[in-house]
């Protein structure tokens, strides 16, 4: 029973399972198998066939991939408690897209293909399809591999705003980065003390804001306000670093976008 409670906690922390009904979560929970790994163990290997996905209970695991034209693997991210990996092979019936190696000993729980297909696949695939086309059109992310964008989509939180509603406020602390998926917004900023903020930027679908707070650990530099009905998706600092490493690396990989980067 204690083990079941542990797994249930991890399911609620994982993007793949936290939207499932209690009944479906219990079906997944009953089907899960426990696996223990030690440092340097290879959990899954790029190019292999895959028939299970894993949810991390404990330990630390490195994700690496050999990109076209390269012979050495590139480290993409690390997985810790609450994360899930290995689902791409099940979602798309494709070989393993990356290699996962255990860095610190720990426990993983696996879900087999049949359970995944029956319970989880439709919900996960719909979520990915919703965002992947949008993400492929975001200029700052155009250098990312489809694999990286799919993992990014998994971490999104969606927010809906009415016209005139503030998304972020000047001088507040910020720990979240936003992309606009539908609608328009604008930024205002106080340029002279004692005077009303003035409009300094317009935003549309595919634009982003909030990067300054993540990169420089500074308060918000401006207000961002919905001009129309607005749908935005956000990533908190932890999700961004967990999935893709420090956000600065993304801007460095797309240096032309970085040098012309918007301010908030």
TrEMBL record:
Keyword Cell cycle: no
Keyword field contains Nucleotide-binding: yes
GO molecular function list: cAMP binding; cAMP-dependent protein kinase inhibitor activity; protein kinase A catalytic subunit binding
InterPro entries the record matches: cAMP-dep_PK_reg_su-like, cAMP_dep_PK_reg_su, cNMP-bd_CS, cNMP-bd_dom, cNMP-bd_dom_sf, RmlC-like_jellyroll
The protein's name in its UniProt record: Cyclic nucleotide-binding domain-containing protein
Positions with a binding annotation for 3',5'-cyclic AMP 2: 211, 220
Top-rank taxon, per record: Eukaryota
Lineage per the UniProt record: Eukaryota, Sar, Alveolata, Ciliophora, Intramacronucleata
All residue ranges annotated as the Cyclic nucleotide-binding domain in the record: 16-137, 140-261
Family: Belongs to the cAMP-dependent kinase regulatory chain family.
Xref: Gene3D superfamilies: Jelly Rolls
Binding site for 3',5'-cyclic AMP 1: 87, 96
Pfam family, one: cNMP_binding
GO cellular component terms attached to this protein's record: cAMP-dependent protein kinase complex; cytosol
Keywords, ordered alphabetically: cAMP, cAMP-binding, Nucleotide-binding, Phosphoprotein, Repeat
């Amino acid at each position: 029973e204690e083990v079941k409670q542990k797994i249930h906690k991890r399911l609620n922390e994982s993007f793949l399972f936290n939207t499932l009904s209690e009944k479906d979560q219990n079906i997944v929970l009953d089907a899960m198998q426990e696996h223990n790994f030690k440092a340097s163990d290879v959990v899954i290997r790029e190019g292999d066939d895959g028939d299970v996905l894993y949810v991390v209970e404990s330990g630390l695991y490195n994700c690496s991939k050999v990109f076209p034209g390269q012979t050495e693997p590139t480290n993409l991210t690390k997985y810790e408690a609450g994360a899930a990996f290995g689902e791409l092979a099940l979602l798309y019936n494709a070989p393993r897209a990356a290699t996962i190696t255990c860095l610190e000993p720990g426990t993983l729980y696996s879900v087999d293909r049949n359970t995944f297909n029956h319970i989880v696949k439709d919900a996960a695939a719909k979520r990915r399809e919703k965002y992947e086309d949008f993400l492929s059109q975001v200029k700052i992310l155009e250098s990312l591999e489809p694999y990286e964008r799919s993992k990014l989509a998994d971490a999104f939180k969606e927010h809906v705003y009415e016209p005139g509603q503030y998304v972020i406020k000047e001088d507040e602390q910020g720990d979240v980065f936003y992309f606009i998926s539908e609608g328009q917004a604008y930024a205002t900023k106080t340029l002279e003390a004692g005077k009303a903020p003035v409009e300094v930027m317009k935003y549309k679908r595919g634009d982003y804001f909030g990067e300054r707070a993540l990169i420089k650990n500074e308060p918000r530099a401006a207000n961002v306000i919905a001009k129309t009905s607005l749908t935005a998706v956000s990533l908190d600092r932890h999700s961004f670093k967990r999935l893709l490493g420090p956000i600065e690396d993304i801007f460095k990989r797309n240096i032309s976008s970085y040098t012309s980067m918007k301010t908030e």
